[in-house]
Amino acid sequence: MERIELLHLLKAELAFFEAGEYGRPFRSAWRPTLLIRDSPTCLTAGFAAGRERCRACKLWPLVPSDKTHERIPCHHIPLNAQGETIASLYRNGTQESLDEAYRGWLFSLLQQLEDQ
Residue 100, Cβ neighbours under 10 Å: how many? Predict the structure, then answer.
């Protein structure tokens, strides 16, 4: 059941991403939208970030154990073999590299789950 729920969540996230919903003002115009955090799939969207909600997320098992204390834990999930994360790409990458890595991660993880 967990795999199926994660599969549905990832498909919804990919649809949101591919529809160009990131980059549009989501809840407030004073800051850019954040991957995952400002998606309708996020359990903390619209709430102050809190680990209780994050722990209930289907992405939680993908967060490295040493990053579960971070403000937005899902931004520390490795997206590729180089270990890039949403957080590291926000700091050091370009929007294009972030979008490419995120989209690639979504497709890769979806493929893995569908093959199981």
Answer: 15
Structure tokens at 10: 């990832």
DSSP 13-76: HHHHHHTT-TTS-SS-TTS---TTTTSTT-TTTTS---HHHHHHSTTGGGS-GGGTTSSSGGGG
Cβ contact 61:48 at 8 Å: no
Q: Which two tokens stand for residue 19?
A: 């529809």
Length of the chain, please? 116
Domain locations along the chain? 2-115
pTM of the model: 0.86
Percentage of the residues of the chain whose pLDDT score is greater than 70: 85
The Cα 112–Cα 116 span in angstroms is 7
Nearest to 9 by CA among 110, 115, 114: 110
